[in-house]
């Protein structure tokens, strides 16, 4: 099985765990993402979404740039109030979204259920995939759910399982990390991460039977960190959407300055000083150059307060104190 199929399954789970399973075209400019993202498009699990009228300026990373017109060589002309005319790859003007209906239909088909076997439990969140009947052992009822770490989602699925009288035969697939948090309503159930138990292949998912009862979490290679600054200090790395971004020295210093600030926000001159910059014309966004994805994901400039603020993502809430 190709590396692209393996990484595509992991990427699919990470996207499914987002509130809106979407991703912007800028991510496709990163070579680490291209193989897995393109595989999802090829398998028609990722579809092109509505085209935006404005995108984040690739030069400054602060202002919204208006899309002016297409140019030659797959480029597009943008206009930013700060940078004025800017050329960028046309990929930046695209968006992609997971077709949840097609994904669930593909999942049910891969478990040998017909196209009418699955039913939606919680809109766009959980489904009953179907019931497998056996001659010499009890039937199994299959379910899939996103956001299963949320108690409200787990509780709603549990109520459906009880209504189906399937509490002793339920098989639950999820895009969430396992094991589930302590105290989850589904803590005693057999819950398996999809990327640990199956791999995307041509037109279906290939399941590994020996992993279906293990309840193990995927390995580090299968589920790398999603969006976090946890590795900035020790490894000079940031993760965005599961993609690893090595940081240059000044990029690391800027992020650490905001992390270590009590309120996680600094004025420009304070940020320059704490980052150790002696540049006369210090510009935060310019220091990130080709790492603009990291900049836009973790740093926000508040024009009303003239402050650079750290954007704290869910994976970092446990070790970075939120601003008061």
Describe this structure in words.
By secondary structure, this protein is α+β, with helices and mostly antiparallel strands. Helices cover 26% and strands 26% of the residues. The protein is built from nine helices and 19 strands. The strands form six sheets. Strands 8-9-10-11-12 form a five-stranded mixed beta sheet. A hairpin with a 2-residue loop joins strand 15 (237-240) and strand 16 (243-246). Helix 1 (3-16) crosses helix 2 and helix 7 (249-260) crosses helix 8. It is globular, with a radius of gyration of 22 Å. The chain starts with a helix and ends in a 14-residue tail after the last strand. Residues 214-224 have low confidence and may be disordered.
- The stretches of 5 or more residues where confidence is low (pLDDT under 50) are 214-224
Structural class: alpha+beta
Order of helices and strands: HEHEEEEEEHEEEHEEHEEHEEHEHHEE
What general form does the structure show?
globular
Question: Helical segment tally?
Answer: 9
Helix content: 25-40%
* Strand order within the widest beta sheet: 8-9-10-11-12
In total, the number of strands is 19
**What's the main sheet like?**
5 strands, mixed
The pLDDT mean sits at 84
Q: Strand-residue fraction?
A: 25-35%
Number of spatially distinct domains: 3
Give me the Rg, rounded. Answer: 22 Å
Distance between the termini: 48 Å
Keywords for this entry:
globular, alpha+beta, 26% strand, five-stranded mixed beta sheet, Arc Repressor Mutant, subunit A, 19 strands, four-stranded antiparallel beta sheet, 3 domains
């Amino acid at each position: 099985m190709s590396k692209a199929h393996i990484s595509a399954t992991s990427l699919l789970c990470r996207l499914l765990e987002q509130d809106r399973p979407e991703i912007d075209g800028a991510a496709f400019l990163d070579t680490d993402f291209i193989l897995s993202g393109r595989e999802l498009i090829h398998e028609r699990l990722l579809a092109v979404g509505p085209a935006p009228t404005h995108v984040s300026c690739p030069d400054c990373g602060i202002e919204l740039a208006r899309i002016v017109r297409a140019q030659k060589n797959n480029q597009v002309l943008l206009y930013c109030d700060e940078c004025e005319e800017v050329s960028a790859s046309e990929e930046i003007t695209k968006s992609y979204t997971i077709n949840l209906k097609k994904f669930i239909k593909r999942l049910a088909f891969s478990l040998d259920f017909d196209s009418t076997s699955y039913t939606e439990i919680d809109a766009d969140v959980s489904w009953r995939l179907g019931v497998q009947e056996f001659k010499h052992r009890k039937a199994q009822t299959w379910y899939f759910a996103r956001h299963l770490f949320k108690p409200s989602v787990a509780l709603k699925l549990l109520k459906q399982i009880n209504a189906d009288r399937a509490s002793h035969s339920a098989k639950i697939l999820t895009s969430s990390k396992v094991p589930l948090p302590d105290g989850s309503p589904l803590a005693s159930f057999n819950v398996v991460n999809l990327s640990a138990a199956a791999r995307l292949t041509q037109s279906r998912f290939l399941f590994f039977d020996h992993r279906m009862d293990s309840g193990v979490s995927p390995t580090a290679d299968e589920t790398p960190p999603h969006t976090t600054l946890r590795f900035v200090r020790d490894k000079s790395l940031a993760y965005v959407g599961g993609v690893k971004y090595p940081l240059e020295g000044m990029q690391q210093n800027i992020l650490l300055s905001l992390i270590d600030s009590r309120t996680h926000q600094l004025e420009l001159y304070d940020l320059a000083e704490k980052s150790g910059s002696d540049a006369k014309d210090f510009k935060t966004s310019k220091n990130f150059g080709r790492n603009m994805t990291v900049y836009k994901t973790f740093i926000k400039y508040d024009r009303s307060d003239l402050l650079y603020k750290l954007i704290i993502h869910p994976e970092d809430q446990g070790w970075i104190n939120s601003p008061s």
